[in-house]
Design a protein that fits this description.
Strand order of the largest sheet: 4-3-2-1-5-8-7-6
Helix content: 25-40%
Strand content: 5-15%
Number of helices: 6
CATH topology: L-fuculose-1-phosphate Aldolase
Largest sheet: 8 strands, mixed
Radius of gyration: 17 Å
Structural class: alpha+beta
Shape: globular
CATH class: Alpha Beta
CATH architecture: 3-Layer(aba) Sandwich
Length: 215
């Protein structure tokens, strides 16, 4: 079931237009290891048995090699007990901002969906390397998403569904920010304004059937 969930999320990434071809990758934590999409295989050709079961020591089970970016997936899972799923995309606007080596600042309150007051951009390192993984871990501290300079975006979340939703939201925010920059300099929300947003986000999107008073 979880193997098919990984495939379904990978297909949805492409359907949403936040990934293309064989770029990007998807993984989900699984019983002390994790399941990850294989390297160089088109998502619409994947079958459940193609999803690679990767151990934390780098060994794997299956007939296909894991994604070349398996290191940052492994390291994020080891560093973050709260993370159950990871999505990496080369989406158009997030990657454009990453190629400028710029963070996504709080020009819009929905930045908080990524867990903080900004989305950091990790320094550049060659894909698939330990150096890139180290940079990603740093950029993801207290965050659910980061950009990778001249590369793309990573989202680390509590479920595959949530990771996809955040990745889609960050891509839209990157598009909005880059569009605003073409007109002028966007007004950036203050720390105090974002503190208020972060507090409200503690209950954002959560339903309490016992609470009948709107706030």
């Amino acid at each position: 079931m979880l193997r098919q969930d990984v495939i379904d999320i990978a297909l949805k990434m492409n359907a949403l237009g936040i990934n293309q071809g064989t770029s990007g990758n998807v993984s989900a934590r699984h019983e002390g290891s994790f399941l990850i999409t294989p390297s160089g295989v088109e998502y619409d050709k994947l079958e459940s048995q193609d999803i690679v079961n990767l151990q934390m020591d780098g060994s794997y089970q299956g007939n296909l090699k894991p994604s070349s970016e398996w290191r940052f997936h492994r390291d994020i899972y080891e560093a973050r007990a709260d993370v159950q799923a990871i999505i990496h995309t080369h989406s158009k606007f997030a990657t454009t901002l990453a190629c400028l080596r710029r963070e996504l600042p709080p020009f819009h309150y929905m930045i908080a969906v990524a867990g903080g007051k900004n989305v950091r951009c990790a320094p550049y390192a060659t894909f698939g390397t330990q150096e890139l993984s180290n940079h990603a871990i740093d950029a993801l501290q207290n965050r659910k998403a980061c950009l990778l300079a001249n590369h793309g975006m990573i989202v680390a979340a509590e479920s595959l569904k949530k990771a996809l939703a955040i990745a889609h939201e960050i891509e839209l925010l990157c598009e909005q920010y880059l569009t605003a920059l073409q007109v002028g300099v966007p007004h950036i929300l203050s720390d105090e304004e974002m503190d208020e947003v972060m507090e409200k986000f503690k209950t954002y999107g959560k339903q309490d059937v016992l609470d009948k008073v709107a706030t």
